Amino acid sequence: MPRLSQSQTQQSNASLSTEALDESHLIVNMVKTILNLSMNKSVIKRTDISSIALKGDSRLYNRIMPEVEDILQEVYGYELIDVDSKGQKTMILCSTIETGTLLELNETYRRRYTLLYLILGYIYMKNGTVPESLLWEFLQTVGIDEQHEHAYFGEPKKLFESYIKQAYVVRFKQSMEGMNEESIFVSWGVRAKHEVSKKEMLESMCKLMNRKPTDFKTQYIETQGLSNTSSDDIEEPE
């Protein structure tokens, strides 16, 4: 087998070096693109990532994505989670860092997340799925009207729609027994499932209602990891 000349070897090494630099640049570009696309916690389309970061060359996507995911997790504390979206390949960027309390947020974020936690808390205490109409009836009992601006939260309906876009809440149609038409239900979205602690949610809602976590058997069993335990077997914590 003929040996490569010195010039051929140098050209080969230079080519490999250039390829490595190009791939490294693409990885950095892809990380920046994902961070920018998720700035408002929006759902990210895979096609948008390829179009912006890879100039439309989707063949590179699978090759460099593992390293991109490592950087997002190790450097920025984020995890990419796939989301079902009508046949499109979409994802969201979820924080892997433990969230602080609402008191640690600035006023703007505190307003936004107080309403979100109130909504998620109600849904959770109702076993995870409720008709949207019942959710708004509950919010009315605490002075939050779907059709009117609130003195503290601003426009509740607009905020609620943003929670859906950000995958904190999912809205879907479902048939109800004894009714001909489908009703609209809401439940926790994929972002809420990854970023919100159900155990902390249960504890917060119990403080709000002046109740004990064990009063809510289904939720307590879930948050304690007691999936094979009967509600009758639960002992009161001392």
TrEMBL record:
InterPro entries referenced in this protein's UniProt entry, alphabetically: MAGE (IPR037445), MAGE_WH1 (IPR041898), MAGE_WH2 (IPR041899), MHD_dom (IPR002190)
Question: Pfam families, from UniProt?
Answer: MAGE
All residue ranges annotated as the MAGE domain in the record: 23-223
Q: Which Gene3D superfamilies match?
A: MAGE homology domain, winged helix WH1 motif (1.10.10.1200), MAGE homology domain, winged helix WH2 motif (1.10.10.1210)
Q: Which residues cross the membrane?
A: none
Annotated GO CC locations:
nucleus
Superkingdom of this protein's organism: Eukaryota
Write down what this protein is called: MAGE domain-containing protein
The species this protein belongs to is: Anopheles dirus
